[in-house]
Specification:
A hairpin with a 4-residue loop joins strand 7 and strand 8. The protein is about 0% helix and about 50% strand.
């Protein structure tokens, strides 16, 4: 099992980025994928989650209306489209595999495999 996160970079306040999480060794339809982020000196927090079976999506309140999670089953890849980025979105973003119940999607301990992280920096 491997998860490869990519797409991070430096963007100005109000800009957009699209992160990718390429999965191998399992089918996306069998597992959910979560996006987490961790800023310096802060705990890792759940950003968004897409369930494996039916594809329901979940978002942290801080990103609702700005971020969109999606997947391409043919490419076994999950995306996180991030619009209207703010300096407080600056963090290392990770994707992870899991099967959490809906109420626990943002708990990092519910995930068993993690990607290496990609840096997102939003300048003011």
């Amino acid at each position: 099992v491997q998860l490869q996160a990519s797409g991070g970079g430096l963007v100005q306040d109000g800009g957009s980025l699209r992160l990718s999480c390429a999965a191998s060794g399992f089918r996306l339809g069998d597992y959910g994928i979560g996006w987490f982020r961790q800023a310096p000196g802060k705990e890792r927090e759940g950003v968004s989650y897409i369930r494996g079976s039916l594809g329901q999506t979940y978002y942290a309140d801080s990103v609702k209306g700005r971020f969109t999670i999606s997947r391409d089953s043919a490419k076994n890849t999950v995306y996180l489209q991030m619009n209207s980025l703010k300096p407080e979105d600056t963090a290392v973003y990770y994707c992870a595999r899991g099967r959490p119940v809906a109420s626990a999607w943002s708990l990092s301990r519910m995930y068993d495999y993690w990607g290496q992280g990609t840096q997102v920096t939003v300048s003011s």
